[in-house]
Write a structure and sequence with these properties.
By secondary structure, the protein is of the alpha/beta class. The chain has 3 domains: about 55 residues, no CATH class; about 260 residues, Aspartate Aminotransferase, domain 2, CATH 3.40.640; about 130 residues, Aspartate Aminotransferase, domain 1. About 35% of the residues lie in helices and about 10% in strands. It contains 15 helices and 13 strands. It has a 7-stranded mixed sheet with strand order 1-7-6-5-4-2-3, sandwiched between helices. The chain has a 4-stranded antiparallel sheet with strand order 10-11-13-12, covered by helices on one side. β8 and β9 form a beta hairpin. α4 packs parallel to α11, α5 crosses α6 and α11 crosses α13.
């Protein structure tokens, strides 16, 4: 319990602030060491500037010199300030921050997978190709689609791949006049960005008051110039689109394609096959659905599944059966294929982890994981709905539940203030202010990873904070966090005037002699 009698996060680090024994105020490397000494002895080397092609350094390198223990301890101490999926729950809606099973990591480190190289002779990587072939098979089976491209490196890259396949298909049909893409207002921001990047004009489709897309609104927006619709299902409000089949039919009847954003596939994997709903292309975030590591800049993987109509336009390279019964990598476009969108095939480590997750769960286990994710989200909704305003109460939540800030009205506490106070309680904040269709949005996604005990501790903390907000304890929130290693920042100033380079503070001038 903390000093105010509220439960703290399970398994989190101490809430001790700056300067404590457990989480010390860690200085920068430049402040620990100095630029005049080094942890190793290096010989003096003279290099002719002509060998550097005019790129010789004009100023001192000024790297701080540290011993190995100093450097090691510095980074370990920094790591203790980080919040991670291994230290606590991430309620980030739209992100699906699930546990990464250690079995996956063990398999990814097996020789032949961990050390595979894209330029190895095909005869030496048959096992790796077989793994990619199996992964492709199960991705197509789970989605009821005809082809898959493993090459995209992330979700946004997958979107780009899928929309490029749509563009290539329409060019092959002589439909270059289709230059408009429909995007619901509740879509992920990458959807309109991807369409615009490819030169399409983005036409928004408004959402209904219940948070879903109306098929009649889609029909009204369709025309001979529409190339595709980019729809997320389940959508970003945490709802399954009830008219998705009717929307797909209307889009196809108009001669356009249906791109489905697969970011929320974790809510329906093993339960609903998107191909049965009429989708033509969908990216799958392996980190969100099949437990590959999330964040940190990569390595990522965002495979794209394609319908029969788009299968001929899948990019190279891809794996297929060779004439001798083995497997081969097709490296060059054949017929109307899209071509190459990346240098090599993709991230083998992510493939191994994803297939391990699939095989260890089995079909029934994947479906159970999806149902548990939905159950957990609805449990959080049920426990919090009397203290928080549910944005769209007419439908059951899928994998995430969306609240707005109307429950905070009159308290002087904003969504941002509430999120900062969650840090003091040992929890990573939920997703804030997204989706944009809801004012002051608070989007919570527990995933299937979290136990009832963990969810109860989280909900108890949320309810206690809500009571404090209504009890006029405004300073409790506007000053938060107060027990974190770092206090609240002026985030606007930090974004507009970032300090990207450390510079030593100037010594104070000596007092003038009297």
């Amino acid at each position: 319990m903390n000093t105010q009698g509220r439960p703290t996060g399970i398994g989190t680090l101490s809430h001790a602030g700056s300067g404590s024994a457990l989480i010390p105020d860690e200085p920068l490397l430049f402040e620990i060491g100095d630029t005049h000494h080094s942890g190793v002895d290096l010989p003096e080397v003279e290099i002719d500037d002509s060998r550097l092609g005019g790129f010789a350094r004009k100023t001192k390198l000024d790297l701080a010199g540290l011993t190995e223990p100093e450097a090691m301890r510095h980074y370990v101490r920094l790591s203790r300030m980080n919040y991670s999926i291994d230290s606590g729950m991430y309620p980030l809606g739209s992100c699906t921050m699930k546990h990464n099973p250690r079995l996956n990591e063990k398999m990814a480190r097996l020789p032949g997978f961990s050390d595979v190289h894209p330029l190895q002779p095909v005869s030496t990587v048959q096992g790796a190709l077989e793994l990619m072939s199996q992964l492709s098979h199960w991705l197509m089976t789970l989605t009821n689609t005809s082809a898959v491209a493993l090459t995209p490196k992330a979700g946004a890259h997958g979107e780009l791949c899928g929309m490029m396949a749509i563009h290539a298909a329409q060019q092959a049909r002589g439909q270059g006049h289709r230059t408009v893409v429909l995007v619901p207002e509740s879509a992920h921001g990458t959807n309109p960005a991807t369409a615009a990047f490819l030169g399409y004009t983005v036409k928004p489709v408004p959402a209904r008051e219940d948070g879903t897309v109306d098929v009649e609104a889609v029909k009204a927006a369709l025309g001979p110039d529409v190339a595709a619709i980019m729809l997320t299902n389940p959508n970003t409000c945490g709802l399954f689109e009830p008219q998705v089949i009717e929307i797909a039919k209307a889009v196809h009847d108009a001669g356009a394609f249906f791109y489905c954003d697969g970011a929320n596939f974790n809510a329906i994997m093993g339960v609903v096959r998107p191909g049965d709903l009429g989708i033509d292309a969908m990216h799958i975030n392996l980190h969100k659905t099949f437990s590959t590591p999330h964040g940190g800049g990569g390595p990522g993987a965002g495979p794209v599944v394609l319908s029969e109509a788009l299968a001929p336009f899948a990019p190279v390279p891809f794996v297929r059966k060779a004439a001798d019964g083995g497997l081969e990598m097709v490296e060059h476009s054949e017929g109307e294929a899209l071509g190459r969108i990346t240098a090599f095939h993709g991230q083998m480590g992510m493939y191994v982890r994803a297939l391990t997750y699939m095989l260890s769960h089995g079909g029934d286990g994947l479906a159970r994981a999806a149902r548990d994710a939905v159950l957990n989200a609805n449990y959080v909704k049920a426990r919090l709905q009397d203290a928080f305003s549910v944005s769209f109460p007419d439908y059951p939540a899928m994998h995430e539940v969306l609240f707005d800030d109307s429950s905070l009205a009159g308290t002087g506490v904003s969504t941002l203030d509430f999120a900062k106070a969650m840090i003091d309680e040992g929890y990573h904040p939920m997703t804030m202010y997204f989706p944009l269709v809801v004012h002051g949005a608070m989007l919570i996604e527990p995933t299937e990873s979290e136990s009832k005990q963990t969810l109860d501790a989280f909900c108890d903390t949320m309810l206690a904070l809500a009571a404090d907000a209504r009890g006029n304890d405004k300073e409790r929130f506007t000053g938060a966090p107060t027990r974190a290693p770092r206090r609240r920042l002026d985030e606007t100033r930090a974004a507009r005037s970032p300090k990207l380079r450390w510079e030593p503070e100037e010594a104070a001038p000596a007092a003038a002699a009297e």
